[in-house]
Design a protein that fits this description.
The protein has five helices and five strands, in the order αβαβαβαββα. The chain is α+β, with helices and mostly antiparallel strands. A hairpin with a 2-residue loop joins strand 4 and strand 5. The longest helix is centred in the last third of the chain and has 16 residues.
């Protein structure tokens, strides 16, 4: 009985888990120009950037401390923000959509160049967030 119940829990949990993927767009310009374009696109939507996570700097600074000499990014930042309108709408549909907030757009530079992107969201109400992020990235990439 316990094994059957545990199996049912895993099956239910498994159906609600969905792998997130990155949607990326190449940026024709410098990392600095891309971060400025992303910041401007977010602000142009009337949104406030809560924070910028300097992931690239952290990885470069701590690589040796964790036994790695591999450089992953020349630079990489993640812009974190929410939209009061979109967040309320998706959380009224399902309060547990709070787990997706804040939303993020990243800018990363590696040997292949500069990329702007965001992660995908589940089907349903969260597609409104994905549309918002898509619009921000398209505006930023257009320059």
């Amino acid at each position: 009985m316990k094994l059957t119940t545990l199996g049912a829990i895993f099956c239910i949990a498994g159906t609600s888990l969905q792998a997130q993927e990155a949607v990326t767009t190449p940026f024709d310009g410098s990392f600095e120009d891309a971060t400025f374009a992303v910041e401007s696109a977010i602000v142009d939507k009337g949104l406030v950037i809560d924070s910028v996570s300097h992931v690239g700097a952290m990885l470069n600074r701590t690589g040796a401390d964790v036994g790695s000499e591999k450089t992953l990014f020349k630079a990489a930042d993640v812009f974190l923000f929410c939209s009061a309108v979109v967040s309320r709408e998706v959380m009224e549909a399902d309060p547990m959509n709070i787990m997706h907030c804040p939303y993020g757009v990243f800018v990363a530079e590696n040997a292949e160049g500069v990329t702007i992107g965001y992660r995908t969201y589940p089907q349903g109400p969260m597609q409104k967030v994905q549309t918002l992020l898509s619009e921000i990235v398209a505006e930023a990439a257009a320059g």
